[in-house]
Please model this.
Amino acid sequence: MPMVTVSISPLQAAGIRAAVDTGAYASSSEVVREALRMWDAARKRGEICDVPRAANDPDGAVKSSQCVADMFADYEAEAGRHN
Model:
C-alpha cells in the first residue's frame, strides 16, 4: 500500500489514538482510511465542494456545498467546545 505523510493537529492525533484505544479501530491507518472513504462519499454526493470545479462554476451551483477546510474548522470548533 502506498505510504503518505501528513500533518494533523494534536487534537486530531488524540482523536485517532482514542478511536484505536477504545477498540473502535485496529490501527490509526484504519481510522484515516475510514475518514477518507467518508470524505470521498460526501464529495461524490456533492456535500463537499470541489474547489477547482467551484472556481469555474458560473452559476454558483457548487458554492452551496461545504469545503473540506470548512468541515475541519467546524469539527475543531465543536471539539473545542467539549474540552
